[in-house]
Backbone:
């Protein structure tokens, strides 16, 4: 996944709130929609952007789609940010 897609996906407050909801475990699209005063189509678009950025995974079970957090992408971002801050030993050795 590209860093640009990830940062762009995280820029939207609704998408960040969806990620917060998914911290508690997987949810169906309908359960996610219940938390927002927008249309189901709008939430679906947000979920699509998060999925394309690799921040969430989806699983179809019958007629339902369940979403869950993909923390590995967030961990990669945190590592990158830490390195930018000079948090690695390579910078200290110079």
Residues:
């Amino acid at each position: 996944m590209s860093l640009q897609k990830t940062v762009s996906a995280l820029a939207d407050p609704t998408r960040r709130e969806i990620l917060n909801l998914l911290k508690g475990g997987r949810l169906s699209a309908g359960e996610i929609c219940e938390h927002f005063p927008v249309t189901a189509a709008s939430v679906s678009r947000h979920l699509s952007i998060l999925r394309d950025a690799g921040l969430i995974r989806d699983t179809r079970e019958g007629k339902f789609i369940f979403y869950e957090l993909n923390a590995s992408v967030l961990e990669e971002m945190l590592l990158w940010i830490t390195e930018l801050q000079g948090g690695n030993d390579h910078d200290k050795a110079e």
The beta strands are 27-28, 56-61, 64-69. The first strand starts at residue 27 and ends at 28. Residues 86 and 93 are 11 Å apart (CA to CA). The longest helix spans residues 71-84.
